[in-house]
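Lab notebook, page 48
Experiment: co-folding of the full assembly
Goal: obtain a model of how the components sit together before planning crosslinking
Operator: M.T.
Materials (sequences as entered):
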Amino acid sequence: MFWTATLIFVTAYAVIVSEKIHKTKVALLGAALTLITKVLTQHEALHDIDLGVDWNVIFLLISMMLIVNIMTKTGVFQYVAVKSAKLGKGNPFTIMAIFAVVTAVSSAFLDNVTTVLLLAPVTLLIAEQLEIDPVPYLITEALASNIGGTATLIGDPPNIMIASKAGFDFMDFIVHLTPAIIVIMVVWMLVWKVVFGRRLHVKEHLKARIMAMNENELIKDPVLLKKCLVVLGLTVAGFILHGFFHYEPATVALMGAATLLFISGEEPHHALAEVEWPTIFFFIGLFIIIGGTVKVGLIELMSQKMIDLTAPTRESMFTLSMVMVWFSGIASAIVDNIPFVATMNPLIIGMCGKVFGATDVATLQNATMLPVWWALALGACLGGNGTAIGASANVIVVGMSEKAGHKITFVRFLAYGVPVMFLTIILSTLYIWLRYYVLKI
Amino acid sequence: MITRELMHTDLTTVSPDTPLPDLLCTFDNGNSRLLYVVDTSGRLTGVITSFDLIKAMLPSYLDSNLAGAVAEDQVITAHEFAKLKAMTARDIQITEFAALKPEHSMLKAQAIIREKGVNALPVVDAAGRPVGEITRKEVLKFISHLCSSHTSK
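Observation: model returned without errors.
Model output:
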C-alpha cells in the first residue's frame, strides 16, 4: 500500500506540474486509483476528518463563488475601478497605486481570479484612454491580488486549507497576516513609485478623457447591489465573529450564499453553473490522494525528514519557520500552491505530533507552532508572484492582455514578478523573525 | 425545392490578402450577406460576416456595460482601426463554416440555419467554389410561399 500511494501521489504531482493534462482530470483519476486500490476506503475518503475530503474548504469555496457570481452582475467592481481612476485625476502612477490597493483589498475578500477578471477590462480601457502601455498596470494588479489574498482566511485557497487543518479562525489571520500584508503593500508601492513614478506620463487632454467617464452607467442593478452589499457585510461580520459563536467559516459562507440566492431572485441553475466546478473537483481529488499518503505513512516519513533537517524543538522552530517561508515561496512560484499546501499541512501536523506528542487544535496553535503556519501561508501565497504561471490570477492577466493585443512574454512577467516575489518573501522573513522571535508578540 | 432554385448568385469575393479597410468598404458596397474569401483557384477558404468585422473592430475587453461609461467613443474605434489596419481577410475569416450544395433541399437549409443561428449560408459546388448564397429571408419567402399555396388548396 505504501508504494501504491507513493506512486499515485508522485505521478499525479508530476503530471499536474507538467500542465500537459488538465489538473482536475489528474486529481480525479488519482483519487479514483487511491480508492480502487483500497489505499483509502470510500468511507475514509468521504467521512474521515484526518484522511478524507475537507468539506469545510469545499463548502467555503462554493459559497464564496456563489456570492461573488451574483455580485458580479451588479457592475459594482467596474464602478469602483472607474471611480478610482477618477480619484487619481488621470495621473498614471496614482491610478496604478489606487488600482493595486483596490485589487488587494478586493482579493482579501473575494477570490483572486474573479478580482482580476473584473478589474482587468477597466484597466485596459483606462490605459487605452490615456494612450499608455497597460502591461505594467495589469501585472501590478495580478501581483496585488496575490498579495491582498494573503491577508485573510478567505482571500486565497491555501489560507482556507491552513485554517481548516490547524483550526484557525478569521481573526487569527487578521491579527497575524494582515499586518504583514499592510507592511508589504506600503513598501512595494514605495518601490513601485521609484520604478514607475517618473516613467509614466500622459498629456493633460488625455487625463480629461478619464474625468469625462460616467461611472454611474456601470451600475446595472442598484436593487441587487444593495442586497449584495448587505449580505456581504453580514457575511464578513459573520467571519469576524465565527470563532466567538463556534461556527466553521463554511457555515457562515453557506448562510450568506443561501440568503443571497434566496433574496436576489437569481435562478439557482444560473448561479450554480458559474461556480468553478473544475477547481472544486480538483480539491476533492487532491484531498483523497493526500489522504492516501497520510494513511500509509509517507507524510510521517517526510515530516521526520523535516525534523532531521531543521531540528524543531518544543521551545523554538526558528530554523523551520525561516526555511518554510523560502521553501514555500520558491516552490509556489514553480508549482500550484494548492497541492503544495495540501501536502505541507499533514506534514506540519505530523511534525507537531512528533515534537509535542499531540495534534489537537491547542497544540497546533501553540506559540512555537504559530510562526510555522504563518510562514507557510506567506510563502505559499506570495511565491505565486514569481512567474506568469505561479498563480491563477497571473495566468488570467497574461491571457486577457494578449487577447487585447498586448502580449506579456514569460520573461517580461519575470522582470516584474521575481523582484516583487523576493521583496515580499524578504519582508515576510523579517516579519516572522521580528514578531515571533525578537518581539515575541 | 432545391437550393439551386432559390439561391442568389451575386456574391462578393475577396482574396485572403485583402486588408481590413478594403473589407469594410467592400462590405458596405456589396450585395451578399457574407464576404467570400477565395484562393487563387477560386476555392472558398473562409467567410466573413458583418458580426466578424464588428467583433474585430471592438477591443476584446469592452463589454456593453463598460462601453456605457466611455465619453469619447470614437477614440476607441479610431485606435482600434489604427491597430488593426495591417489585418487581412486571412486573419478575420471563419474557416469552419456550414455550407450547402446546390442540390440540397430547403428543409436542410432551414435545419442548418436553426442549428447554427447564422443569417446566411454559402452554397458551394463539388470543387469547393462558391456559387450562391441562401439567406434567412429567402428561406422564409419559400416557407411563406409554401404555406400560402397549402392554404389556398
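Interpretation: Chain A is about 75% helix and 0% strand.
Next step: discuss with group before ordering constructs.
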